[in-house]
Amino acid sequence: MRQSVTRTDKPAARRRTYKLLGLVPILLTFALALPASASADGWVAQTSGTTSVLRGIAFSDATHGWAVGDNGTILATTNGGATWNAQRSGSYVDLHAVAFTDASHGWAVGYRQTSFGLTESYENTILATVNGGATWSTLVGWTYGGGLSAVAFTDASHGWVVGGDAQIWATTNSGATWSRQTFGELAWFSDVAFTDASHGWVVGGLYLSPTIGATTNGGATWSAQGLGAQSSGTLTGLNGIAFADATHGWAVGATYDSEYNTTGNVIFATVNGGATWSPQSSGSTASLNDVAFSEATHGWAVGPDGTILATTNGGATWNPQSSGSSAWLYDVASTDANHGWAVGAGGTILATSTGGPTPTPTATVTLKLSGLRSGAMRLGRSVTATGKVTPTSLAGSKVKLTVQKRGARWVTLKSVARTISASGAYSWKYKPARRGAYRMRATIAKTAAHTAATTTWRSFKVK
Fold this sequence. Notes:
By secondary structure, the protein is mainly β.
């Protein structure tokens, strides 16, 4: 999403409520799916230890992270997700978003909705920690307006939470007190992003008409940013927003038909802080719930049925990555171009440390020459070439050995291929036919399964 020092990680499609034609908000509910094993594209299912729906995730660096979800669930890791441990939130409401500015200071927000006929109420909460989640305290618990769905902090003092009924609340003292900020239009805000204490954006909509708001003064004033003709005539809901810096940003969401069934997705991008937004082609028909960019080129977007889209050129092109999961993914976070995490239904946590694709294994090859004394041997005797190749998955393939003799120039006398054993070892005996200076090297050719590797030339003399 954003740079780690200004992270505003938030959950996407956090059981979002859109007010349609003044009717009771429609709650989108989704089926649970259990985590899957590692995929072919470098995304690995991590063990969360819960089956609760996870709706938000945040990492302060590549090792320290937190995930939040239904019934006050909070999980934490200090090793990049290799292990996750439950933290006591002291809350039973569904947590929809989490933000950390460093490994100690964090905040989580959420709500629980109750309905009585056409009357709705929302029990909102804001939690905070100053010790990495060892203890959480409730900053705010109120019944007011729509549910709180997203949180952003730029440092340990300055933060914002947003939600239904155009709610934007700001704090300058770590959440001890909050003040309402005015947007000027009725909207249900789904997400918020700030790159510093001045520049911020919110996304959402009303009647599935997309809305993006922006501020350049910390929220003292907010103004609506237009998406232009790209979205006119189309029912569109914006679910997630990410800014890599004060100028480069992305907003993602879903399109709907007249019956409010999802029909596809939208991705909008800006390179001027939101003064203008342009549509990007995702190459996918899946709706999108959230987006994360660590810098202006590398980003991910996630959605239902394990959808993960990736870009390495700022969204000029988006490509699907296999998540190995069928879970509904709600949120995504990244700390750099390689490290990313996504959370979703059924306690799903997916992670990559390779930017998504599994890197091609790096092959190595060694070469040792024996039968020599001080780098020389007598004519009529043989030199034995031995070595080892890694990884061991190369067993059964061939290593090429090349012998050259020096005259006016180096001339290749012989090239042979030797089979690599199960342990990665190989050997070959070579008997020179003439006296002189020789050299030999071993090579593994590049294939789809590994990189190429070669040794340096090993020289010897025949007397």
